[in-house]
Amino acid sequence: MSASEPLIGISTYLERTRFGLWDVEAAVLHRGYLDCVVKSGGNPVMLPPVGTWTAETIGFLDGLVIAGGADIDPAAYGAEPHPMTGEPRRDRDDAEFALVEAALKLDLPVLGVCRGMQVLNVALGGTLHQHIEGHNEAPGVFGHTGITVTPGTRLHAILGDHTTVQCHHHQSLDRIADGLRVTAKAPDGTVEAVEMEGARFVVGVQSHPEQDIEDLRLFKALVDVSRRRA
């Protein structure tokens, strides 16, 4: 394959879906993820939450996106479910924890989006606040919040001191896993981004950059780092 077109794996949902004549279980994904990867110079590869994901089976990838989605099972970080926590999707939890483990073993560039940042934190031993207010205006409606980015971080080099992001979440990072550094916060103190110190590129954001096809800074940064491996 051309070094100018790295393969970027993206985790997917497994949902009951209607299309054409069918109403079936399907692996699905917001198209924004695909478009952002393509417009940033990569080729997207959808990774369903089935099968076995290891360093050997994802070795063909050049980078990885852990996409947004449902709440992580609180049992994964030793907690009892909060009344506002959604039904667990253990198949997706298991698949994405395995993808993170494999990607870190391979030193693949990783971008965690919303749930994806939470997966990264839990996979490395961190915990979550199971419910917060003010970051989810309405079901299916993305809100906006300004974030402040820590100078001297990879994220600062990408986004600068401040930026406005789109958000849709009711959970957030609590105890930060060893090896991760907080790199951005919202005005109310909510952790908006983390990155792994010493890694080639492991960045998690609580926001949804795939919802703004005109702002490709995060996806382009991921693809550019991945291109060096391709």
TrEMBL record:
InterPro entries per record: Class_I_gatase-like (IPR029062), Peptidase_C26 (IPR011697), PuuD-like (IPR044668)
Record flagged with keyword Hydrolase: no
PROSITE patterns recorded: GATASE_TYPE_1 (PS51273)
Pfam families in UniProt: Peptidase_C26
SUPFAM superfamilies for the chain: Class I glutamine amidotransferase-like (SSF52317)
Keywords, comma-separated and alphabetical: Glutamine amidotransferase
Protein name: Glutamine amidotransferase
